[in-house]
Design brief:
mainly beta, Immunoglobulin-like, 13-stranded mixed sheet, four-stranded antiparallel sheet, 2 helices, elongated
């Protein structure tokens, strides 16, 4: 028990240091977990997001103009962002809703309204753009070795007309296309007009995304309660002949665009209670030693459980919560976990997941 307590203390200490290392220490935003039967459809509509509680909304009140020091005025620009994820998928989903009194998107270059998103899926931190390479390499060389490899920057055009939905500022433009990303818009204004825009999209964060393409890429693994680094800025252009009017930044640090240490903490939240059954059995396993046919089973059931019964599929059982079982011979096994609690009884079987030689 003392060892478990010490491990918990060390883990909490490490998490505290992680959060302190990010920008806006003590601030942590939430990423909503969608149930697997309610994954958002990327169509520019908001109804799929109605299940997300208001506590997950990140609004303009969290942004700071770090270039011009403008005072927030919702009549000039007002944005709401929701972020989601799905357990088992290494994707981040976004709903971006914005009102702007002047939408600038007539040109084909970077001079337009932009949502600039930075994602550091493994909290590696530090600079990640060619201009900030630690070894001061020539920019052309640093671009292909370094730029966007361990953290990614998306310049998302709001809206995109006659061009790709985003510019990936790095050496890996392939990450903005399927099967790694997708986007859809809804709006009814023209350049120079006011109005509301809805942008729905998802991206895949990468621990390694090289310029050579996806063949050696490593997706960031997403799991419950993981903290990732992320931030965004809204680049608001109010006249096609003038520079950026506002640089509204969630990080409150302009340099977030190229240094992942200036990202903000985001936590991948567990499924909200209303999407669970009162009692949901679940489990995983790991083969510890294939030669000895030694397997560790871990209970992952949701709800209050007072008793467990494992049927290992070889005419043996266990009442432990997390048993280790040694099979006498190889084969394909049907393993079933039976759980019982105040909400009743339930079972979870897995057919031939456990295969031993």
């Amino acid at each position: 028990m003392k060892r478990l307590w010490l491990c918990a203390v060390l883990a909490l200490g490490a998490l505290s240091l992680t959060l302190q290392a990010l920008e806006r220490p003590g601030v942590e935003f939430k990423i909503f977990q969608f149930p697997p039967d309610k994954i958002p459809r990327i169509d520019g509509k908001t109804d799929d997001w109605d299940i997300v509680p208001e506590s997950y909304v990140i609004g303009s009140d969290q942004l700071k103009d770090t270039m011009n020091n403008h005072t927030y005025d919702k009549n000039d620009l007002d944005v709401r962002v929701k972020v989601g994820w799905v357990k088992g998928l290494n994707r981040l989903y976004f709903l971006y809703e914005a009102y702007d009194n002047y939408w600038d998107f007539a040109k084909t270059d970077l001079h337009q309204d932009i949502l600039e998103l930075v994602v550091d899926g493994d909290l590696s931190g530090g600079p990640f753009i060619k201009q900030l390479h630690p070894a001061k390499l020539p920019e052309a060389e640093a671009h292909f070795l370094f730029h966007g490899v361990h953290a990614q920057n998306y310049h998302i055009f709001t809206p995109a007309e006659g061009k790709d939905w985003a510019m990936v500022w790095g050496c890996q433009p392939w990450i903005k296309d399927l099967p790694y990303a997708n986007a859809a818009y809804a709006y009814n204004f023209k350049p120079g007009e006011s109005g509301k825009l809805t942008l729905e999209f998802w991206i895949t964060p990468f621990d390694y995304a090289g310029c050579e393409g996806p063949q050696r890429a490593v997706e960031s693994r997403l799991y419950e309660n993981k903290v990732i680094g992320m931030s965004w800025s809204v680049l608001d252009f109010d006249d096609t002949d003038k520079p950026v009017h506002g640089f509204w930044n969630l990080s409150h640090k302009t340099e977030m665009y190229g240094n992942a240490s200036y990202a903000v903490a985001f936590r991948l939240m567990p499924l909200e209670a209303q999407f669970h059954k009162p009692l949901e059995p679940d489990w995983s396993f790991q083969v510890l030693d294939m030669d000895r046919r030694l397997v560790a089973f871990q209970d992952k059931s949701y709800g209050k459980v007072v008793s467990w019964r494992w049927d290992f599929g070889d005419n043996t059982t266990s009442a432990e919560q997390h048993p280790i079982h040694q099979y006498e011979k190889g084969g394909e096994y049907v393993v079933t976990l039976y759980v019982e609690g105040p909400a009743g009884k339930a079972r979870r079987a897995k057919v031939w997941d456990v295969v031993l030689k």
